Amino acid sequence: MYNISVNLNHRDNFLKITFRLLIIWFSFFNIQFSIANDINISKVKEMISSSPSLALTEINRLIETNPNSHNLLFLKAVTQSKLGKKELAIKTYRDLIEIFPNLPEPYNNLAVLYAEQNKLAEAKKILKKALETNSSYSIAHINLGDVYTRMASDAYRKAFELDKSPVANNKLQLINELFSYSPNMQKKYLAVPESDTKSEKKKLADLALLVESWRSSWEDKDIEAYFSNYSKYLKVKGDMSYKKWKITRTEKIINKKEINIKLTNIRYDYKNGFWYISMNQAYNSGNYSDNEEKTLIVINESGSYKIIEENIKN
């Protein structure tokens, strides 16, 4: 038996959960062997490690004379998986389960392959079947717990993406801390917990730099610098996409002859993993001016503070 890290999110920079893919050599089976005595098991094991392609050829040859050998079918599936032939491995595990429905190990490995494809509901179903055959099979219990964890992570992430829920964000952080992996979906945002070694004075200084960078780049119409202050997961009002918001915002800024922005009464408040920066904003662009009470909601994104939402008090 050995552990492998299985990427459960098949997209960019996906979530890593350790699933236990069982490679059980024959001495580990608590069942009667059906392999002929002339089969050199040690040689097959060595071939799988050193040359899986040759090993698969040899296993297929042995299966011709031992078609119902659960051990050879199991090793065939393991070798197919090692060679990246995942669909063939899935078929072999299913064939093995059909012939030997009371062996928990094939269920476990089949579930791992489905989890690798992000088919978590199917993986959960199959792991439960493994436990029906052997309720004390600890590896299946662990893998089932990992599947539930991933499903919970996906649900919390979805909740956060919909309304930037601080509760969902905190639970994502908790999963990250407990399992030492970063739940990520195409590099979706996961707030980095505030460092205990960073002083409150330093945090406030960094936040003040963000506010000044945001204000000055807006005033200078430095579009690139302006957008660099925002998280790409900015919560945009209405049904507008982030891309459309950037286009609209760019047009509004660059078409102004001049922009003057004065910020006063700036306050900082940290709550539920977010910084709330409230201020009075006086805006003037020559032919238009206003005074608003604005709040920037800021996250620590990969070590840098970014604006994830803007609110204006009516």
Distance between the termini: 62 Å
- Characterize the largest beta sheet: strand count, sense, and whether it forms a barrel: 4 strands, antiparallel
Question: The CATH topology of the largest domain is what?
Answer: Serine Threonine Protein Phosphatase 5, Tetratricopeptide repeat
The CATH superfamily of the largest domain turns out to be Tetratricopeptide repeat domain
Oligomer: single chain
Q: Topology as H/E string? A: EEHHHHHHHHHHHEEEE
CATH class of the largest domain: Mainly Alpha
Low-confidence stretches: 1-18, 23-38, 180-193
Beta content: 15-25%
In which order are the strands of the major sheet placed? 3-4-5-6
- Give Rg in angstroms: 28 Å
Please provide the count of β strands. 6
Q: Helical stretch count?
A: 11
How many domains, as an integer? 2
Secondary-structure class: alpha+beta
Overall outline: elongated
The overall average pLDDT, rounded, is 77
What fraction, in percent, of the residue positions are helical?
A: 40-55%
* CATH architectural designation of the largest domain: Alpha Horseshoe
How does this structure look, described?
Helix content is 50%, strand content 17%. It has two domains: 4-157, Alpha Horseshoe (Serine Threonine Protein Phosphatase 5, Tetratricopeptide repeat), CATH 1.25.40.10; 200-312, Roll (Nuclear Transport Factor 2, Chain: A), CATH 3.10.450.50. The chain has 314 residues and is α+β, with helices and mostly antiparallel strands. The chain is elongated and about 90 Å long. A four-stranded antiparallel β-sheet has the order 3-4-5-6, covered by helices on one side.
